């Protein structure tokens, strides 16, 4: 077994690097750029039980240290995903994580029920999209409001359940503890930070919703701090993310306690950047005579 082998809630990952939701669609386009079976896992674009067109107006805005997005959970719907993409992904030797969002609690319940009929490895419950007016982030900001949702989806879903948390939460540690109490198998954090951009020529806010989600290197130190705090507070495993761009970043998140890391925004700059990260982590392990990442995980 490779020294990169990682277990997450009983699921075997050949290495700890996962493509974050929203950065790889359902994997097909990236498979044209590189061998996606070299990845540990792949998290799908956020899916809702019904197809959704997403937000109007500008959706992506670059900053010097990351990007802002207001995609608004555009997605083809769970049914279309099952018909068109699921078999293709399941044939690949990569952990298949399905990220699921919603506009209402009913959306989440129906989505979780439908996904019970099919084979996936992990259901990543996205309660943290900052770009959905109804539902979405509202669920993920207040711990007690999110509790019922997590509890019900836990009851419905037969899959491993990982809850994706918002850095905009009133208390991210309390939110993670609540997920643990309600039976989640793990948490992933952080989704994007609520942020704002101004077009000074138009004298207007750039995004139609006003605010949008900031990702990339700008958020990395804050994400790292949140991952560290959550890892200290819960026993369930954590998928860490937020601006991971280099193998050094991945090692830092693992030292903070992350079991698995997700790479998002950096993929937009270089589609196969995860392979560089995997190679760098392996070289670091060799140089430091590590047989397992457990030797450095959570040491801080
Ligand atoms: O920043 C984000 N944008 N996070 C999500 O969870 C979803 C996405 C979107 O579709 O807006």
Automatic annotation (TrEMBL):
Q: Might you give the EC number(s) for this enzyme?
A: 1.3.-.-
Which keywords accompany this UniProt record? Answer: Cytoplasm, Flavoprotein, FMN, NAD, Oxidoreductase, Pyrimidine biosynthesis
> SUPFAM superfamilies attached here?
FMN-linked oxidoreductases
Per its UniProt record, what HAMAP family does this chain match?
DHO_dh_type1
Q: Which reaction does it catalyse?
A: (S)-dihydroorotate + NAD(+) = orotate + NADH + H(+); (S)-dihydroorotate + A = orotate + AH2
Q: Which InterPro entries match?
A: Aldolase_TIM (IPR013785), DHO_dehydrogenase (IPR050074), DHOD_1B (IPR033888), Dihydroorotate_DH_1 (IPR024920), Dihydroorotate_DH_1_2 (IPR012135), Dihydroorotate_DH_cat (IPR005720), Dihydroorotate_DH_CS (IPR001295), Dihydroorotate_DH_I (IPR049622)
Predominant place of localization: cytoplasm
Q: Which Pfam families match?
A: DHO_dh
Q: What does this protein do?
A: Catalyzes the conversion of dihydroorotate to orotate with NAD(+) as electron acceptor.
Biological processes annotated in GO: 'de novo' pyrimidine nucleobase biosynthetic process; 'de novo' UMP biosynthetic process
Q: Where is the Dihydroorotate dehydrogenase catalytic domain?
A: 4-285
Q: In which pathway does it act?
A: Pyrimidine metabolism; UMP biosynthesis via de novo pathway; orotate from (S)-dihydroorotate (NAD(+) route): step 1/1
Q: Which organism is it from?
A: Mediterraneibacter hominis
Protein name in UniProt = Dihydroorotate dehydrogenase
Cofactor requirement: FMN
Q: Which gene encodes it?
A: pyrD
Q: Where in the cell is it found?
A: Cytoplasm
Q: Which GO MF terms are attached to this record?
A: dihydroorotate dehydrogenase (NAD+) activity
- UniProt keyword annotation of Secreted present: no
Assigned protein family: Belongs to the dihydroorotate dehydrogenase family. Type 1 subfamily.
Gene Ontology CC entries for this record: cytoplasm
Free-text cofactor note? Binds 1 FMN per subunit.
In terms of superkingdom, the source organism counts as Bacteria
Where is substrate annotated to bind? 45, 69-73, 126, 191-192
Residues that coordinate or bind FMN: 21, 45-46, 99, 126, 164, 190, 216, 242-243, 264-265
């Amino acid at each position: 077994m490779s020294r990169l082998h990682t277990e997450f809630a009983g699921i075997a990952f050949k290495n700890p690097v996962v493509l974050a939701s929203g950065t790889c669609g359902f994997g097909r386009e990236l498979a044209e750029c590189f061998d996606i079976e070299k990845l540990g896992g792949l998290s799908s674009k956020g899916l809702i039980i019904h197809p959704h067109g997403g937000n109007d107006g500008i959706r992506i805005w670059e900053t010097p240290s990351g990007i802002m997005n207001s995609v608004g959970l555009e997605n083809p719907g769970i049914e279309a995903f099952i018909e068109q993409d699921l078999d293709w992904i399941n044939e690949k030797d990569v952990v298949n994580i399905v990220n699921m969002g919603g506009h209402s609690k009913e959306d989440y319940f129906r989505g979780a029920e439908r996904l019970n009929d099919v084979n996936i490895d992990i259901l990543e419950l996205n309660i943290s999209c900052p770009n959905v007016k109804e539902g979405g982030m509202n669920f993920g900001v207040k711990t007690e409001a999110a509790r019922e949702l997590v509890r019900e989806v836990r009851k419905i879903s037969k899959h491993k359940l990982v809850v994706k948390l918002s850095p905009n939460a009133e208390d991210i540690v309390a939110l993670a503890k609540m997920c643990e109490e309600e039976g989640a198998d793990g948490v992933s954090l952080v989704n994007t930070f609520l942020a704002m951009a101004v077009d000074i020529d138009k004298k207007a806010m750039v995004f139609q919703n006003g605010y949008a989600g900031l990702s990339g290197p700008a958020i990395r130190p804050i994400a790292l701090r949140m991952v560290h705090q959550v890892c200290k507070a819960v026993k369930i495993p954590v998928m860490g993310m937020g601006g991971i761009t280099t193998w050094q970043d991945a090692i830092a998140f693992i030292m903070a306690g992350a079991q698995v890391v997700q790479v998002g925004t950096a993929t937009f700059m270089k589609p196969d950047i995860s392979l560089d990260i995997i190679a760098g982590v392996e070289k670091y392990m060799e140089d430091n005579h590590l047989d397992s990442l457990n030797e450095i995980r959570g040491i801080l």
